[in-house]
Amino acid sequence: MEKPREWLREKSIAKKVLKESNVVLEVVDARIPLLTRNSVVESLAKERNKSLIVVLNKSDLVPKEFLEQAKGVIEKDFPVVMFSAHKNIGVNQLLEKIKEYAKEKQIVKVGVLGYPNVGKSSIINALKKKKVATTSPKPGMTVGEKLIKLDENIYLIDTPGIITLEYQEDLALKGSYIPDKLPYPADVAIKLIEKIIQNKKEALEDAYKVKIPDDPLQALETIGKKLNYKVSGGEVDYDRTAKKILWDWIKGHIKAYWL
Ligand SMILES: Nc1nc2c(ncn2[C@@H]2O[C@H](COP(=O)(O)OP(=O)(O)OP(=O)(O)O)[C@@H](O)[C@H]2O)c(=O)[nH]1
């Protein structure tokens, strides 16, 4: 499947941001913390001896025990801060961690990296306590790079999402690809449904108020029927149903999570 051409520059952006920054915030989605870690960013940071802090954002969407579990796993490699840009959780803790590094330097530049839509701009706004970066549920909305002054000697670098030349389907599962641009949204929705059924089937049942069968394709059909998304002739409109599910996942309306 074709890779998104506009994102092919991503590795060079990651390298540039890493080169310019003293501290790197790797932002991950707390619902799928391991899936949204990026091995390229992590290994580049290690190679270049940059301090990296993993920010578990959207922590408001998962239970505390799950967060602790995810933190425990990631902390084996990097320090972790639990964060919610929406609920202002973790702001002071993250600022303190950044300031620890700032003590040793005159000017500290903080690179903010992560897949599209994990909440990089929202985190910048939460740290700055002001809307300085544009946020949107549409993945890929941050274009170009911006330098944002946090205080006298700390600057944040806002970047477009960083991805690793992944297939659209894999990105879409992470909520990092616009569902409407997918050539086969039903394929991706089925994969997502499969993951959710394995980990937290009730999340689908709660979101669509319907009993979900164990088979992912049947589950897609069940949801389409419940939504009354039909094509002429009365069959379920699978593509429309799939896009709706993928958008609901992006927007946090389906309360599932897994390691
Ligand atoms: N529930 C919840 N949603 C969040 C949180 N932080 C961000 N979001 C939502 O996630 C979506 C993406 O946030 P952005 O800050 O635009 O993400 P980004 O990583 O800068 O996105 P790109 O510009 O695509 O790289 C938006 O709809 C935000 O409202 C959070 O802590 N909790």
TrEMBL record:
<dbReference type="InterPro" id="IPR027417">
    <property type="entry name" value="P-loop_NTPase"/>
</dbReference>
<feature type="binding site">
    <location>
        <position position="161"/>
    </location>
    <ligand>
        <name>GTP</name>
    </ligand>
</feature>
<feature type="binding site">
    <location>
        <begin position="57"/>
        <end position="60"/>
    </location>
    <ligand>
        <name>GTP</name>
    </ligand>
</feature>
<dbReference type="GO" id="GO:0005737">
    <property type="term" value="C:cytoplasm"/>
</dbReference>
<keyword id="KW-0547">Nucleotide-binding</keyword>
<dbReference type="Pfam" id="PF01926">
    <property type="entry name" value="MMR_HSR1"/>
</dbReference>
<keyword id="KW-0963">Cytoplasm</keyword>
<dbReference type="InterPro" id="IPR023179">
    <property type="entry name" value="GTP-bd_ortho_bundle_sf"/>
</dbReference>
<dbReference type="GO" id="GO:0005525">
    <property type="term" value="F:GTP binding"/>
</dbReference>
<protein>
    <recommendedName>
        <fullName>Ribosome biogenesis GTPase A</fullName>
    </recommendedName>
</protein>
<keyword id="KW-0342">GTP-binding</keyword>
<dbReference type="GO" id="GO:0003924">
    <property type="term" value="F:GTPase activity"/>
</dbReference>
<feature type="domain" description="CP-type G">
    <location>
        <begin position="8"/>
        <end position="165"/>
    </location>
</feature>
<feature type="binding site">
    <location>
        <begin position="117"/>
        <end position="122"/>
    </location>
    <ligand>
        <name>GTP</name>
    </ligand>
</feature>
<dbReference type="InterPro" id="IPR006073">
    <property type="entry name" value="GTP-bd"/>
</dbReference>
<dbReference type="InterPro" id="IPR000795">
    <property type="entry name" value="T_Tr_GTP-bd_dom"/>
</dbReference>
<dbReference type="Pfam" id="PF00009">
    <property type="entry name" value="GTP_EFTU"/>
</dbReference>
<dbReference type="InterPro" id="IPR050755">
    <property type="entry name" value="TRAFAC_YlqF/YawG_RiboMat"/>
</dbReference>
<comment type="similarity">
    <text>Belongs to the TRAFAC class YlqF/YawG GTPase family. MTG1 subfamily.</text>
</comment>
<dbReference type="InterPro" id="IPR030378">
    <property type="entry name" value="G_CP_dom"/>
</dbReference>
<dbReference type="InterPro" id="IPR016478">
    <property type="entry name" value="GTPase_MTG1"/>
</dbReference>
<comment type="function">
    <text>Required for a late step of 50S ribosomal subunit assembly. Has GTPase activity.</text>
</comment>
